[in-house]
Amino acid sequence: KPIPKENLNGDEYMELRYTHTLDKNPVVAIVPAPDSYEQVRKYIIPAQEGVMMWGSDLTREYGGDWNVDFILVDPNSRLTVEPDVIMNLVTRDDQSGCGIDFAGLAWMSWETKSSGERIGNKSINTIVCTTGFDFERTTNQVAGTAAHEFIHAMGLGHAFNKNNDLMCSIESGVPTCDNTY
Question: Considering the entire predicted model, what is its pTM?
């Protein structure tokens, strides 16, 4: 959520990890875990809504076209296009760590020449947890995590000292904002 400018004190910042040169709408593949498909499929639309929430905010704030294209990969289909982001919807059983260390995760890799020179980004994998230890996450929680991990996939890190921002988190056991989600 945007913070009214009168509430900013000058200590707020957000890390920029890398940038994308996008000459088309980003393509996000939503991949519900096949082993728990029946349990996680109800989170497909909330994950899409979380990603689209950022596009709506950016359009409202800056104008322009911030659309995202989605591919749904169900247990009986395969990717036919290389997406920019792969968003895996998983349960704690599918992915160790859900509910312990994180509610979501994003990581990336680069394509490189034999010389080691970086020439482009490969698809960026993200994980969005739909369950924890003995609980199921709400659709709003999953939408928020999907938005957070998508923004990581687009290159931004965590927000610092910017209370109630969706990009606040916990790093090394320390909240990056006072009101971390």
Answer: 0.81
